[in-house]
Every structure is written in structure tokens, then in C-alpha cells.
Design a protein that fits this description.
By secondary structure, the protein is α+β, with helices and mostly antiparallel strands. The protein is built from five helices and eight strands. It has one domain: Sandwich (Jelly Rolls). Helix 4 crosses helix 5.
């Protein structure tokens, strides 16, 4: 198993979240993903930009910020730590753009999967693609539940 697939065994991509060793190894392979390193204070995504990728944080810390317009100050939406994911809205909805800006607050590493590689994974390894999709859906449900608790 590669160092990357070992590092992925946290949070959303962990065995406890339903992602087995074989699936992590596939996700870590160059056929389906790319490992990207960000230095501190590097902008990863810009609000409003097109994106076709989902990012899984391996290490580091990111901040997601949003600004309604140029006169409105940026609002911190949340901290993104290892084991979490970024960019899921525009990844699954090709008509959507990034709804927040994401910046590395420390040196960080992410695993990037673009839409074409995800489709290739779905065709060649459907069981592993289902594991990944189920884990992301569970993560999205958790986020929605957390947001509901804040509002209610």
C-alpha cells in the first residue's frame, strides 16, 4: 500500500467510513487521482470559479470563506481538516461554480479526483466507486444535519 493510501485512512476515506484498503489504493493511484501540495496562504479554490474536482484533505488545514459581494466582508464558513472533502457541489453539479473560496492555512496535501477520473472509476471499478459515493453522501448528510442543528 502506498504512503498516500495509508494517509487517506482517516475521516471520510477511512475503513470506519466504509472505504476498504483496495479502494483507498485505487483512489491513490495516478489512474484516478492526483496528489497536490499547497503551501501556507495558498488559495486552492476561488468563489465563483468553475471546478470539476473533489478534493480529499490528507494533511494541513484549510479555511472556507464566502463573500456575498464586494462590499461585504468575507465570512468564515468553516475549517477543513484532514479527512474532510472540498468542492463536492461543483463536482456533482456541473452547472455549479465554487460557492466559497478555500485557502490553505498551513502547508497541506490533498487528493484531487476530477469528474473524468471519477467516471472512469465508476466504469472500471463500480463497487469501489459506490463505496466512495456512499462515503461522500454520508459526509454530505452529516454536514446537512450539522447545519440544521445550527439553524434550529
Amino acid at each position: 500500500m502506498s504512503e498516500t493510501s495509508e494517509l487517506l485512512n482517516c475521516g471520510l476515506l477511512s475503513e470506519s467510513a466504509g472505504i476498504n484498503t483496495e479502494t483507498r489504493a485505487l483512489l491513490a493511484s495516478e489512474n484516478f487521482s492526483e496528489v497536490i501540495k499547497y503551501t501556507e496562504d495558498t488559495l486552492m479554490l476561488q468563489q465563483g470559479q468553475e471546478s470539476d474536482s473533489i478534493y480529499f484533505t490528507i494533511s494541513g488545514l484549510f479555511h472556507a470563506v464566502s463573500h456575498a459581494n464586494q462590499q461585504t466582508p468575507q465570512r468564515l464558513l468553516g475549517r477543513i481538516e484532514p479527512g474532510e472533502f472540498i468542492g463536492e457541489i461543483s463536482f456533482f453539479d456541473s452547472a455549479a461554480h465554487a460557492c466559497a473560496s478555500v485557502k490553505a492555512m498551513k502547508n497541506a496535501i490533498v487528493l484531487k479526483i476530477n469528474r473524468d477520473n471519477y467516471k472512469a472509476l465508476c466504469k472500471s471499478h463500480p463497487a469501489q466507486a459506490l463505496e466512495l459515493t456512499s462515503a461522500v453522501a454520508t459526509g454530505l448528510a452529516r454536514r446537512l444535519r450539522d447545519a440544521n442543528e445550527k439553524v434550529l
